[in-house]
Write a structure and sequence with these properties.
single chain; peptidoglycan synthesis; cell wall biogenesis/degradation; cytoplasm; cell cycle
């Protein structure tokens, strides 16, 4: 939805679920001047008449995704005033990577408590950006901004999550020219001096939602088939589910999970993709509650993501938290 702001015209996103986050992001786009039409599993967004470039606190406080409008707006219009986003209470989620990268591309950033103002009256320019941490939203913001920057942008140490690749495919469908590097190679974006083209694109599945159902399948009494699940995106999770004792059958476009009859303890450590995803750590903790033996979870992404352990302790679980290790 944020990428649509790079275009001028009517775009269609397919595979969109009717959830509150989509509604919240839609309200932000409408506030900016976009016209949005929802259908059963898609939405059409018309960005021909964008006007306001100020995103107020009342629209950003409840979720993280609005930060993704920062890059497209500064790239297309040269200005944006943005109230910092909210989201889950799982620790510090700074946006320094976003701001540092935009400054490298020529933006003048004024950050105060609770808001950011970005100016680039002469437009953005290409830059070589080395991200200190592989932030997913930071990578996405810089990719989108670079599409309308003059020259070539190289993003090193970028996030490699499937959602980043999906965004790259979407941007290419809009006329952007970019290359995703392998391993240490950077993401390379060749900028242009005009808005991208309206598009029609089907987004990838929600791999965290799919992973949540896979974990549920390891607890359920009957086999659970998760359709529309791309198994290669779930490699780290599937490895741990098999280690705990669950049976996994991979079919084309679906994954079938059979309950772990006598689940055994395993250790997990979260990290950037392709490591075990932090967003599936709380769900797996509930599964480990059923396992025989002692398990250890090491959380390397967020410093305060064991809040759910209090509920398991209240149910009788023996849990000890020591910093980022549980």
């Amino acid at each position: 939805m944020a990428a649509s702001l790079l275009a001028s015209g009517k775009s269609t996103l397919e595979g969109i679920p009717p959830v509150s986050d989509i509604d919240s992001m839609g309200r932000i786009c409408q506030y900016l001047g976009a016209n949005i039409t929802y259908t059963s599993d898609s939405l059409r967004i018309d960005t021909m008449n964008l006007g306001s470039l100020n995103v107020p606190d009342r629209l950003t406080r409840s979720l993280r995704a609005p930060i993704l409008t920062l890059g497209p707006l500064i790239a297309r219009f040269g200005f944006v005033n943005f109230c910092l986003p909210g989201g889950c209470s799982i620790g510090t989620r700074p946006i320094e990577e976003h701001l540092r990268g935009l400054e490298k591309m020529g933006a003048c950033i004024k950050a105060s408590e609770g808001s950011v103002e970005a100016n680039a009256p002469s437009g953005l320019h290409g830059a070589t950006i080395y991200m200190q941490t592989p932030s997913v939203t930071g990578t996405m913001n810089l990719m989108m901004a670079a599409c309308l920057a003059s020259g070539v942008t190289y993003i090193y140490n970028s996030a490699r999550e499937p959602e980043v690749t999906d965004l790259a495919h979407c941007l290419i469908s809009m006329g952007a020219i970019l290359q995703e590097g392998d391993g240490p190679d950077p993401i390379t974006i060749f900028g242009c001096d005009k808005p991208l083209l309206p598009y029609r694109y089907r987004v990838m599945e929600d791999r965290i939602e799919a992973g949540t159902f896979l974990i549920l399948g390891a607890m359920a009494g009957n086999p659970l088939a998760v359709h529309g699940c791309t198994s290669k995106y779930q490699t780290a999770l599937i490895e741990k589910l098999r280690a705990i004792g669950a049976q996994i059958d991979i079919k084309k476009g679906s994954v079938i999970v059979r309950k772990a009859v006598c689940p055994v303890a395993v250790d997990i450590q979260t990290g950037p993709y392709p490591a075990y995803p932090t967003d599936l750590q709380p769900q797996f903790m509930a599964l480990l509650y059923m396992a025989r033996g002692t398990s250890q979870i090491t959380e390397t992404v967020f410093e305060d993501r064991f809040n759910q352990s209090a509920g398991l302790i209240a149910m009788g679980a023996a849990i000890c938290v020591d910093g980022r290790t549980l």
